[in-house]
Structures are given as structure tokens and as C-alpha cells.
Amino acid sequence: MTQFASPVLHSLLDTDAYKLHMQQAVFHHYYDVQVAAEFRCRGDDLLGIYADAIREQVDAMQHLRLQEDEFQWLSGLPFFKPDYLNWLREFRYNPAQVCVTNDNGKLNIRLTGPWREVIMWEVPLLAVISELVHHYRSPNAGVDQALDALESKLVDFTGVNRQSRYVPLPPDGLRHPPPFLSVKCSRR
């Protein structure tokens, strides 16, 4: 990795749980269906400048696989069927399914392949885009700046509840959040 020192994703389970449920349904009911999907940036951001770094991360994703402890954990859940989990254990991201280009500053991403595989790209790919964009736009941002920004947003969000009563944050802000608000920050 040259642009972004390390992979953004570290586990095949760096996704939303519903994606695994949806993938299992596609695996059982639409196994051979081929699909195409495209990334659409809803804003005016010129994200195309990140295309090379995104491609680098996409290429790194081919090395992700379901670890044995992850397989065992999923196997203990009542809603995943053994045939799906055995298939997922062998699943690898295929970077050839992803075309990433910079079209005059516009980021174009097109995914093609079997639905049972393409479905897994959505959440991790959006996470990669978000992580890279924020890394390059705010290279010196640390945990303290992130907590300050989060606190500011939460003050705006919690300042008024349904009855328009003020809901204060603790005196020390989010440095020691109340038990109902679990905020965990860590460095990789």
C-alpha cells in the first residue's frame, strides 16, 4: 500500500449484519443471478481524486476471509444456515468485479458479478470511500478533534427534545459520557 499506509478493512465482518442476512437469502434463492451496481455521490464533491487510493483498498480486500473464530461465532447464531456459512468461509472479494475511475473529478464505481458476491461490496466500499476522503481532507485530525466535533453535533441534537426542553450534556462533555451514551474511541 503506497497511498494509504494500511488497509482500512481488517475483517470480512466489517459490514452491517443485515448484509449477511441479505446475502444468505440471495445465496439460497438467486444463486446464479448476475447484477450490476453503481456508486452515486449525491453531492457535488469531486471524489474522483481518490480513485487510485480506493482501487488500492479494493485490491487489498481480496485478502480478507472469514476467520475461524468468526465462523464459529456465526455458526452459533440460529439464523445462519450451515451451507451458507460454509460458502462464506470460502468467500473472497474479487477486485475484478469493481471498476473505479476518475471522470474529470467525478468518482465512478461500477460493480458487476454474481449477486451473492456483489452484495458484499456495498457497505465496505462506502466505508473505504469515507475513510479515505476524511483521511486526506483532515490528515492531522485526532481523537480529541473527533470527540470535539461529535460533542458539538450531539449538543445540537440533544439540545431540544420532543417537548422542547433543554437536555444538557455532562459538565465534562463527552470525555466521560453518561452510561446511556456509549462512546468508544481507539487508535488502530
Q: How do the strands and helices of this protein lay out in sequence?
A:
Blueprint: H1 17-29, E1 34-38, H2 51-60, H3 68-75, H4 82-90, E2 98-103, E3 106-114, H5 115-118, H6 122-137, H7 143-158
Antiparallel strand pairs: 1-3, 2-3
InterPro entries: NAPRTase_N (IPR040727), Nic_PRibTrfase-Fam (IPR007229)
Domain Nicotinate phosphoribosyltransferase N-terminal: 13-130
Protein name: Nicotinate phosphoribosyltransferase
Descriptive tags:
NAPRTase_N; EC 2.4.2.11; 40% helix; 188 residues; glycosyltransferase; 11% strand; transferase; three-stranded antiparallel β-sheet; Nicotinate phosphoribosyltransferase; nicotinate phosphoribosyltransferase; 3 strands; alpha+beta
Characterization of the model:
The structure is a single chain. The chain is α+β, with helices and mostly antiparallel strands and 188 residues long. It folds into two domains: 17-137, Alpha-Beta Barrel (nicotinate phosphoribosyltransferase); 142-188, no CATH class. Helices cover 40% and strands 11% of the residues. The chain has seven helices and three strands. The protein has helices at residues 17-29, 51-60, 68-75, 82-90, 115-118, 122-137, 143-158; strands spanning 34-38, 98-103, 106-114. The chain has a three-stranded antiparallel β-sheet. α2 (51-60) packs across α6. The mean pLDDT is 83. One of its GO terms (biological process) is NAD+ biosynthetic process via the salvage pathway. This is Nicotinate phosphoribosyltransferase. It is an enzyme of class 2 (transferase).
